[in-house]
Amino acid sequence: SGTLNVTELGELLGKPANDIIKKLMFAGVMANKNQDLDEDTIELIAGEYGMAVKKEVEVEKTDLTQYIEIDDEKDLKERPPVVTIMGHVDHGKTTLLDSIRNTRVTAGEAGGITQHIGAYQIRTDAGKKITFLDTPGHAAFTSMRSRGAQVTDIAILVVAADDGVMPQTVEAINHAKAAEVPIIVAVNKMDKEAANPDRVMQELTEYELISEDWGGDTIFVPMSALQGEGIEELLEMILLVAEVEELKANANRRANGTVIEAELDKGRGAVASLLVQNGTLRVGDPIVVGNTFGRVRAMVNDLGKRIKKAGPSTPVEITGLSNVPQAGDRFVVFEDEKTARQIGELRQQKQLEERRGEQSKVSLEDLFEKI
Ligand code: GDP
Ligand code: MG
């Protein structure tokens, strides 16, 4: 799409601007040479010269979101929250992620060896699941959001109680707010002599994160990620916020979701970690992922265990794609492989055209075809 003015349209059609202006007049549109024309008008004038605007249909076909059916409210069930841990460097993000994982992931999973797939899922004592993205910090927000993806339901803002609000703390707040994601503050390193949680609370009031004790509605959890203190309470608070947010999905449909990370593996080819956001992903599913496609050949979970299906909010690693997608790319499962291939190839082609289009100016043949 994009607009053309009268002169530009004339150039593309090989007609003087005055001719175009006359045609427009007959069509009841008064225009000058510099007038921008909308798509319908361009189509109309092109038609007068025996041309049709092409490509729009194909371009539209490549938009993956249109293939995602909207769920009936009655089919939606509670799903686990997807949590991102953010905060200033050295405030304890990695320690917290490890600490949560170590206490939880292997519980009841005999011999489970954690596998890095960019996210993991835990099960709390109450039997509720929580998914953590373990690309800590802003990566999850910046790279993904720049691609229009939103995977995080809840942000945990880690602030070291002995250091207080720092530049990346503020950055994290801004990311979470821009994404309209609720924030839980983990006041970390409470075991330290110099810990001053009141100062953290005070400093955060400036960013409208006001604790419940002070009349606000932000949850603050004092903790020591290093010593494993406060983790239990943090998990409880995550579930509380999740309940308020009413996070739902429909497991009984074809899956869609987002790429968390992807790489080329020497032995296995393209490997992608996916977060299933809706539906159930199954081995054998025909799938379009970003500008690539394929069939889910093998699927493993965050414990490195081979699985056959994965429901909403589950992170998995898959093989079977023709190319390596990018973090933040959307994926959609299709009913049959032929459609997935067609749409995948169209998207590939469009990506190539976009790269080329940046160099060369659009030509008549690119825009119009004879009718
Ligand atoms: P990140 O940069 O936010 O991922 O921070 P790390 O998790 O790497 O932690 C930075 C340093 O702080 C490491 O030396 C940790 O051992 C230490 N640390 C993290 N959490 C705590 C805590 O609760 N108490 C104490 N005393 N040290 C901590
Ligand atoms: Mg770290």
UniProtKB/TrEMBL annotation:
Superkingdom: Bacteria
A single GO cellular-component term on record: cytosol
Localization annotation: Cytoplasm
Ranges for domain Tr-type G: 78-248
Keywords from the UniProt entry: Cytoplasm, GTP-binding, Initiation factor, Nucleotide-binding, Protein biosynthesis
Residues annotated for GTP binding in this entry: 87-94, 134-138, 188-191
Molecular-function GO terms, alphabetical: GTP binding; GTPase activity; translation initiation factor activity
Function description: One of the essential components for the initiation of protein synthesis. Protects formylmethionyl-tRNA from spontaneous hydrolysis and promotes its binding to the 30S ribosomal subunits. Also involved in the hydrolysis of GTP during the formation of the 70S ribosomal complex.
Membership in a protein family: Belongs to the TRAFAC class translation factor GTPase superfamily. Classic translation factor GTPase family. IF-2 subfamily.
Protein name as catalogued: Translation initiation factor IF-2
Species of provenance: Halolactibacillus miurensis
Chain's gene name: infB
Full protein segment contained here: 70 to 440 of 646
